[in-house]
Amino acid sequence: xxxxxxxxxxxxxxxxxxxxxxxxxxxxxxxxxxxxxxxxxxxxxxxxxxxxxxxxxxxxxxxxxxxxxxxxxxxxxxxxxxxxxxxxxxxxxxxxxxxxxxxxxxxxxxxxxxxxxxxxxxxxxxxxxxxxxxxxxxxxxxxxxxxxxxxxxxxxxxxxxxxxxxxxxxxxxxxxxxxxxxxxxxxxxxxxxxxxxxxxxxxxxxxxxxxxxxxxxxxxxxxxxxxxxxxxxxxxxxxxxxxxxxxxxxxxxxxxxxxxxxxxxxxxxxxxxxxxxxxxxxxxxxxxxxxxxxxxxx
Length: 298
What we know:
Helix content is about 40%, strand content about 20%. The longest helix has 15 residues, at about 50-65. The termini are far apart. By secondary structure, the protein is of the alpha/beta class. The strands form two sheets. The chain has a seven-stranded mixed sheet with strand order 5-4-3-6-7-9-8, sandwiched between helices. It contains eleven helices and nine strands. It is elongated, with a radius of gyration of 22 Å. It folds into two domains: about 5-65; about 90-285, Rossmann fold (3-Layer(aba) Sandwich), CATH 3.40.50.
């Protein structure tokens, strides 16, 4: 087959299997097999592809037809403009999680003046490391800690940190939520599991059958892990500090009420997406005294 014929075939094959984004995904699979970019694909459409590459493409189509996520097949996914290695060891980074980065960047200049040391940022349940690595790159005067229960996920996150040149500024810690921290945190970010048990069977097979359930399932109401995390915050963060937490679309009110009970002295806000859906909780914990300044040992 020529490249053009291969592109037509892979798109048709995916479409026949009910893949909604067959035109785009077919192109991405072919680019992955050819090892070229879009410009080269279309500029040399009449170039023949080898038998070996044709077989590889067919094998990838079979995997995608079995609803294996495209990101796991090609082995990477973009997050906040950076390319991350992904596989079944961790959740695939989502565009909606980029909101956590944006909120953290807003909080950084509010917190930094209180410290004469690098800001301590903690990514709870780091998974692929997309949050930890992105924040380490965007806030170079910071010390990042990344926690996860999964040793395999931590290994993947460390690989991504090395790829992006920030492994020396991220400490990877195995354990539950904030418990492994050796120091008090200044800024906590987390994308915890929040899928309700009742919603699990309705998830797309790409998610339910392939991504790690531990990173997705949040118990009967989706808030089991969120409650435990919020309960750990008072003992594991300094003051001032801030928390940015991803939420499910219908969790805003419940989590806001819980945060207000736990942190009555700090403003709590639910941040919504452009479509109006709840997406993140932002909690700011002010200094214990209005004039207090935290120094290197704080």
